[in-house]
Sequence to fold (569 residues):
Amino acid sequence: MRYLTLVADYDGTLADHDRMSAETALALERLKASGRRAIMVTGRRLKHLLADCAYPNLFDLIVAENGAVVYEPLTREERVLGNPPSKSLLKALRARSVTPLEVGEVIVATSASQRAAVQDAVWELGLEAQVIGNRGTVMILPAGINKASGMEHALRKLGLSRHEAVGVGDAENDHSFLERCECAVAVANATDSLKEHVAIVTASPSGAGVRELIDELVKDDLARVPEQIDRNLILLGNRLDGSALRIAPYGRNILVAGPSGSGKSTLAAGIIERLIDKDYQVCVLDPEGDYGTLEKLVALGNQWRAPSIGEILAILEDPKVNLSINLLGIALSDRPDFLAQLIPHVHALRTRVGRPHWVVLDEAHHALPGSGGPADLALPRQVGETLLITVHPEHLSPTMLAAVDVVIAIGPAPEQTLEEFARATSRRLDWPQALTYEPGQVVVWFASAGQLPFAMRPAPGRAERIRHHRKYAEGDLRWHSFYFRGPEGRSNLKAHNLSMFSHLAEGIDEETWLFHLRRGDYSRWFRHAIRDAELAERAERIEHRHDLSPAQTRRMIRDLIHARYTLPE
Fold:
């Protein structure tokens, strides 16, 4: 299933005239029986809601007070997510004869006719508060609290992300949470402004509209919803006419193929960044430890310690965490077995909570070889969203190749790369005569859609990935080595990699350390020999600080290296 939870407003959506009907309750029971969850989000105070709603136990969680309170009906546990209303605010509102005045755990609400008096009071007191309209009501809440923030808390408590959610509402204060849901729906009686920003508008109003939505969810997982919901699309690059090429983040498997050093992993890293930017959880199987330096990726394992399946699954349980699994601690011959153990667990996690949304496998031909093996046998019948990177597509598992929808050929011979893929999958490749290789371009083939290949300029990532950083950490840089010579060349200590640099930096005398520090030699070496501009810039800032002791500068520069390159202790 793609959509694992329904997030619904109460008044005007689930409920007609304060009450949810027995028919809507039966529809929610059908939803729950399909294995999906249900979350209610409402601007109401909890006690008022529970007095009117006869079916609270049909919801896994209830978000009340417009996002400020989360309630679990099964346990009756209530969690308040904001501070209580300011006493000075309540005093000012009463002084202005604001009535009616409802005061909850966090929320303060009154009639929309009192909006001007409310805004004046908030302004005069200088409060960091927001005034929110909801049809005939005005609500005051602390900054940052709304239905979206409450929904995110509830989803995380259930182990889900916003990308598994279908949201449905009717009024102004529903905008915030509907914008965060993977698919947004408005009931027929919703405000026009809300209808303009959703993927579906139901044919029926309020409760009948929700029942209509639930029936369609249970029947076919909203198969009619267009894949091309603009806000969810992931940028790959630009066609030669300048138009952006974006793909849906669901129902796609991508293969990036080309010779070594052609930029495959750099292109993949840019796609990973953009997936993470949109809150899609990514799990990278990283054979060389090259992806651990990407922002917002937690690196697990190194060349001395192999990650365990239990550790991987424990980390992936949190929808906010993206993971890079460093495979250097696992022998190349053992990796297919490791993957064979991991695949069923990841598939089970995806079935249960829809995550990780994307799995990335670099050097895929080693882990999933064309000769078959345990990992190939462990592949599910329907492979979820996967990004594969390989030099040799023809050496990749036929099962995995058959699941590929989009091929990105990179390097000087894209036609040859696509021909290798076409032969391995028994697909027909029609190469356009006008299509030729140009530096800085790649060729994209939507193979499963039967489209012709075309050229694209790939979108760059924010930060260039550190290529071959194991070489810089532990290899031999030869003539690019660093020499601790000190004043007048009294020393001649060679650091042929970052590991040796860190080791020597701990032991050299203070005069030698400061000699190179003040000359900017460390940042210069990082920039030109290690080719790591970010490390160089950070080191340069330390070199310019005269308020630090020599010991502090040594420790800070060594910590910088450790943070970007996993060094042995």
DSSP finds 21 helices and 25 strands in the chain. The first helix runs from residue 22 to 33.
